[in-house]
Amino acid sequence: MVAILTGDIKNSTEYKTAKWLPVLKQALGHYGKEPTEWEIYRGDSFQLQTVPEQALEASVYIKACIKQTRGMDVRIAIGLGEKTYDAGKITESNGGAFVHSGKCFENLKKLNLAIKTPNKLFDEHINLLLELALLTMDNWTPAISKTVKTAIENPNMNQKELASILNKSQGNISEELNKAGFDEVQKMIHFYRTQLAQL
Questions:
Q1: Is the dihedral of CA 184, 74, 113, 150 positive or negative?
Q2: Residue 198's pLDDT is what?
Q3: Residue 109's pLDDT is what?
Q4: Which of 96, 103, 102, 99 is nearest to 81 (CA)?
Q5: Is the CB of residue 191 less than 8 Å from the CB of residue 129?
Q6: Do 169 and 160 form a contact (C-beta atoms < 8 A)?
Q7: Count of CB atoms situated within 10 Å of the CB of 190
Q8: Residues in Cβ contact with 180 at an 8 Å cutoff, skipping those fewer than 6 apart
Q9: What is the per-residue pLDDT across 93-144, written as a single tens digit (0 to 9) for each?
């Protein structure tokens, strides 16, 4: 089973491509290699293949990267399933995971993040959590987004160490992670991983 993330950049036409494209490439490169595991196409759309365990964290990470620019955001649909055809390029490969990701993306509408798997009950539970998490995540400021991005990149660092990387006080880091709902987001990612066994 693989995870396919299909996404696009919201409001991309309102910003210079040079502002967000390198950031998106860096974010995708954090989880895979181009073009076998990720590609950017149609200007501001992208696909990323990763293992199911990493899919939700990768989505949160990409969001944190893009939201470092005020007013920008990303829509991501996660599809879990089989990969039955490997073309060497992610956008030409195929299988259930790609179908689920595509259908999920078409149905995103107001939501910026959702998941579709072969298990309807699993989807209902995780999508409810995502909907609640987005109430906070969609409102991350650029400063909070940068702190979340750095915290995900350095999972073993404490707040003091994160503060030294970001040239902020520990109090600042604590406040930003608190506002980001970072502990709760981490718990959601952990819960998602424990539930994967049901699939």
A1: negative
A2: 86
A3: 87
A4: 96
A5: yes
A6: no
A7: 12
A8: 136, 137, 140, 144, 147, 148
A9: 999 999 999 999 999 989 999 999 999 999 999 999 999 999 999 999 999 9
Q: What is the tens place of the pLDDT at every residue in 41-64?
A: 999 999 999 999 999 999 999 999
**In this predicted structure, what is the pLDDT of residue 12?**
95
Q: Which of 172, 146, 142 is nearest to 159 (CA)?
A: 172
Report the distance separating Cα 142 and Cα 48, nearest Å.
24
Q: To which residue do tokens 């990612």 refer?
A: 189
DSSP 94: B
Separation CA 87–CA 42 (nearest Å): 19
Q: Which two tokens stand for residue 47?
A: 């696909």
Given CA atoms 124, 129, 134, 137 in this order, what sign does their dihedral have? negative
Structure tokens belonging to residue 16: 């210079």
Upstream peptide bond of 155 is cis (omega within 30 degrees of 0): no
CB 196 within 8 A of CB 53: yes
- Give the mean pLDDT of 9-25: 95
Give me Rg for the CA atoms of the chain: 16
Tokens describing residue 186:
């981490």
